[in-house]
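[09:14] KT: can someone run the structure on this one? pasting the chain below
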Amino acid sequence: MKSALLGIAAGPSLLAMGDKAAEMESAMSSRPNIVLIYADDIGYGDLACYGATAVKTPNVDRLAKEGLKFTNAYATSATCTPSRYSMLTGQYAWRKEGTGILAGDAKMIIDTAKMTLSSMLKSAGYTTGVVGKWHLGLGKGKSELNWNGDIKPGPLEIGFDYSFLIPATGDRVPCVYVENHRVVNLDPNDPVTVSYQKPIPGVPTGQTNRNQLKMDWSYGHNNSVINGIGRIGYMSGGKSALWKDEDIADTLVNKTVSFLENNKTKPFFLYFATHDIHVPRVPNARFVGKTDMGSRGDAIVQFDWQVGQILDALDRLGLTQNTLVILSSDNGPVLDDGYKDQAVEKVGKHKPAGPLRGGKSSIFDAGTREPFVVRWPKRIRPGVSEALISQVDLMASLASLTGQKLAAEEAPDSLNMLEVLLGKDKTGRDHIIEHSQFGTLSIRVGDWKYIEPSDKSKFIWQTGIETGNNPQPQLYNLKDDPGERNNLADKHPDILNKLKPMLEKVKQANRTKE
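[09:31] RB: done, structure tokens below
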């Protein structure tokens, strides 16, 4: 179902089945399992099925061959925390303060009273689980977050029955896993202390012990040293609970497969958020040297292996036919993201963003246009879809699939794109909203994209990525110019003057929802 842009404020509540009631009842009766695989920092051009030739991704390719591959699917934001927030709540993160990239000790930013993707599916009778990167905060705040006791609120308080987490990111402390409410393998005689304000006395850092690091830093990432790698933030204690970077993928896959095995006889929703290919990129020895691109390329191979393990488990458990698998990424690609891992030097002819401009953090399309593949053999015919869809739409779409009706205040920016996911609607949304790390917004309507003016920096000095910020309005035709090189604002003032108020209308819509 596609919203009319002039009625955006009411659009997300349009879940009436109408003359499609019979079809929706049929979908409800099949009750598919749902597996959401969410990669980290994988760009539009990083996978073979999206044109990459320097790296092989046979498992993702298999998923794309057996399912529907989208070419115009978007994350809501160009960085991780806001994308995840939007996807799980159905609300654009830029509508809520405090949803930027979070520190590792940040409080949970999702209101436990808010309907979420997980709580909605739980109410539909699904057993729900999350494994992997979280980065949405835990607990009630720094002063009340005790890593040595019950850590809550967290995923269990917003509808997940089970959780096994990297609390924030692999490059941020604490470098421990949290299972449900507790740090895994924590020795009570060696408590964890975390600080993002000042160093912890006696704890080596990436500055004081730089010559001993197994992976040097290029900027930042020089606070506490864990597993020979400098991190963001300071941490002491918890030696028995520390993860080993080389084993993260194996650990997360094992927990994911166990969840599938333990819930194979009932409908389940699994949110599997990989660490790969976020920094620090330290793939297992099995994957080292699998590409000529160094650790970033090898991490892509490791990510693909994880996808294969999940697909193999679904096959082995007889769940493939009636499991909806959705694969995407949280934001666009980045090469040098704080470590000297030769990602820049060894990229060669590989184009992480494919034909797109920009990357992680950018308002250009490479910041938010993502690989997006769905497979449900029982219902979805294989193919390629050019339909416009946003990850914020997953909540309304899966509510429709499972027969749940959202109240007007729930998932206010999510549109019911079930027909798009099923391959029956070839058009999708009538607009896409993109959001950069710097708060810049853009709107895409059809092939036209308008980027609002911004006086902020045009480049990110650390990564070299173009932000897309410009004090002048920008207008691009993405069909003729997917790389957003030819600003047509002066040549097409008529189109510019249509898109600009459309974006303003979206910005003003649903402002009272939060």
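[09:33] KT: thanks! Residues 1-168+268-276+315-514 form a domain with the Alkaline Phosphatase, subunit A fold (CATH 3.40.720.10).
[09:34] RB: yep, looked fine to me
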